[in-house]
Amino acid sequence: MNGKFISIEGIEGAGKSTQLQFIADYIRSHGKQVVVTREPGGTPLGEEIREVLLKPTDQAMAEDTELLLMFAARAEHIQQVILPALKRGDWVVSDRFVDATFAYQGGGRGINEQRIKQLAEWTLQGCNTDVTFLFDLPVALGQTRVEQRQQQKDRFEQEKQEFFERVRNCYLARAEAEPKRIKRIDASQNIEAIQQQLKHQLLPLLESTR
Hints:
The chain is built from eight helices and five strands, in the order βαβααβααβααβα. The chain is α/β, with parallel strands linked by helices.
């Protein structure tokens, strides 16, 4: 693999979408080809699964169903988008990847971590991110930002604060366990300060591939 794989993670309202394009543009400014994608989604089938997963509904979805749908979309994403791009030498920047499943379905839903690991080993087959940027901020601030959007919340955004506290704690625990891969970004700062943090983390990776 000649390309690099970057994902961005964080709870709702962390500002990932705002910085996604900045990351892609910064990498392109260093002469790299970039594929921007997202999870769940990234492929026609994955986008259909995303609609099922995010659509607000009064009917509860079984936790195992949610978990398996996430990995079904991811399997398609890896085979159809991520691996082909990396083999071409392109860089991939994805809005969420497998860390999100550990955080949301593991931390948030309480699904046993070992079960998630087994699915990850089967689905990823060694494919994982070179760097993951964890956009971290207090849950209350994230929820305030979501409210300020003044748009209908998706199925995950409708969860209670306690759910997102568990998600955030899981993210932070993963960052502590894998500090070389997962880089915490203080997402409570202003946009310019966040972008300076990103440049500081991206530049060594870019220089290593010259």
